[in-house]
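WARN retry 2 of 3 for item q-0093 after timeout on previous attempt; input resubmitted unchanged.
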Amino acid sequence: MAKAPNLSLSQRLLLASQRMAPVAVKAALVQQLGAEQAAQLSPHMPPAQLRELIMTLPIEFLAEVTTHLDPRSILDTYLSLPDSLHLEVARRLCVIGAFATAARYAECLSPRQVKVLIYGIHDADQVLQIARHIVDIELIVQSLRSFSTSYLCKLTEAAAADANVALSARVLSGLPLSRQADICTHLAPAVLEPLLPLLLQANAALRELLPEPAQPVAELP
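OK item q-0093 returned
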């Protein structure tokens, strides 16, 4: 358990009552403290009791707390929570526009769990906004491998509309060349035009798998 630095009297009293107070009482007290103080308190609570408390709190409050909390400070507790709760909080973070926070928490999960988040959010624009803040691109690549071509095309189109084709290229270039070629053949020319040179730059062998219409046109001298 982390050492408590400068906790308020209310926070210390709540910590002291962990074993005695019913979880419903603790949940009410934590919400009275507010999201920021709850975030400060969380790393100092025993993991089992913190998990029990989290499962009792409203999703809206949990999402607000996460914006003030480094997930690594409660990592064991966070990873013990059900995927359904991860998804509900991620959805709420999307609603309030806290995409960087959603990305920070997603990076603590496995590719399988991130896949559950992507599938559950099921909004290409919101998924893209989260992906913009993820440093571990390989995590996204592994999570997307089994998604359909049509959904990967939706993500690519959302990236193009957001002027972020470079992100799509980084993600798609991590997929097998056959998948990349399949996606390219299903994209509109306006989306493919800025994307294809980036994919070919990452692996020129992709050119051999593309049908003639998708081949980049050589510039005239």
